[in-house]
Write a structure and sequence with these properties.
Layout lengths: L2 E19 L3 E15 L4 E8 L5 H14 L8 H12 L6 H21 L3 H4 L7 E2 L1 E7 L5 H13 L4 E5 L6 H15 L4 E5 L6 H13 L2 E5 L7 H10 L4 E3 L7 H8 L5 E5 H4 L2 H13 L4 E4 L2 H9 L4 E6 L19 E2 L12 H7 L3
Amino acid sequence: MKIASHEILIVDNPLGRPFMSGGTVASSALRHVILKLRTDDGIEGLGWSFAHSPVMIPALASAIDDAASHIEGYDPMLRDQIRKELHRVIRWSGPGVSDVVQATINFALWDIAGKSLNQPVWKLLGAHTDTSVPTYASGSLWRDFSLDELAETAGSLKEDGFTGMKFRCGAESSAEAEAERARVVREAVGDDVKIMVDINEGWDIPRTMAVARYFEAHDVFWLEDPIDHKDFDGYRQLVNALDIPITQGEYHYGPQPIYEVVKNGAADIVMIDAHHVGGIDPWMKAAAVCELGNKPVATHLSPEIAVHLGAATSNLLTVEYMTWSFGMFNESMDLDENGDLKLPQGPGLGVSLNEDTVKAGLVS
């Protein structure tokens, strides 16, 4: 079996509610780069990446296109050989785009592997479960929500079966106003639902220390990305000073910085993004480093991929249930009666493109 051809699609997937990403980019649709990687015996593997801002999407699509062309003729099962060859030709671009290119191709290679063996990826990874993984609702409680919107939406998420959910803070003028958002969410869902807060690097250490004490009073389960991800000393200070668990890791590219997070004691919980770290194989390596450092891990975005990772990761804490790509696929991602995310049972990644949705959102 050899890689024979590929196709690149750029697709806008509409969002149910426009939002401000990280306080910088207004998004009403999430622009995706989809890779269809085909073998000489007719198997098609899917990989995809996305961005809130469309500015760099043409460059990303072009890079994925060129990289996929470069590996035509390779055996898709030899993923490490392909990774090393791609690293050789794209490493000059540094971390960031090169990692996302690697990830998009790696996703498609794993999809091919599963389809060729008629097995889901989670089983090929050696899963510890064949039913479901813990999850929490994300992407529904934004920092521009009013307190009434927060309460209503949080209550609806609980009714939908979620036993955990994340909301955003970082836009209020006072620590007390930030704390009020936590109070409203807690009262809306009761004491039996985990609530998490994401700051998207919007604070400094004094602000984090001040607000965290309020969050602890409302039993916030974790405080995510309060300060710049490169400030390992600052994160270690927060980890040592606060009772609330500090979560970070999504902004790091490649697996090496995840090792640095663990080595420096810069997080209580490490969040690993499969796109940023370079794909499924490096994600598993990064998660193993965290396990050796006695750190639990959480996934970031793309639950269609993360559900497989979570099922095969013994130190998994939870999978982020983010709906940004859902409209592009025929398959749904469902919760079980305990609020956990069910594993897909189809081969490969277990998703297929909804051609009508893709056609409607096709940019090029």
